[in-house]
């Protein structure tokens, strides 16, 4: 199993939207590195759901429900999407400030590549974030 973090502006598609919908197509990614990360996702992988821009916090854990397929928002074959389903909301949000202050997370992709919308997490990073949110 692999672990990931995806970012979404809550005004565009919030965690509550994912919970309401039961699953969503994670599409519209137009960054090559993020696309490559989508291509590596496998069914059952766990995904931290990060509200970017206005909230800057991790709010829930999703699961990959369907592996990479042609992004339906473009005819260009190079772009892919995955299907995500909600797993569980975190009991408390894990803020970007908390992450920055935690020395155990100093190498996390969220701090090193802050603009990347889909990034891998190590099992240890995932477990630390989960602990901070529960």
Automatic annotation (TrEMBL):
It holds the Pfam family EVE. PANTHER family: THYMOCYTE NUCLEAR PROTEIN 1. The lineage of its organism: Bacteria, Pseudomonadati, Bacteroidota, Cytophagia, Cytophagales. This is EVE domain-containing protein. Residues 2-131 form the EVE domain. It comes from Nibribacter ruber.
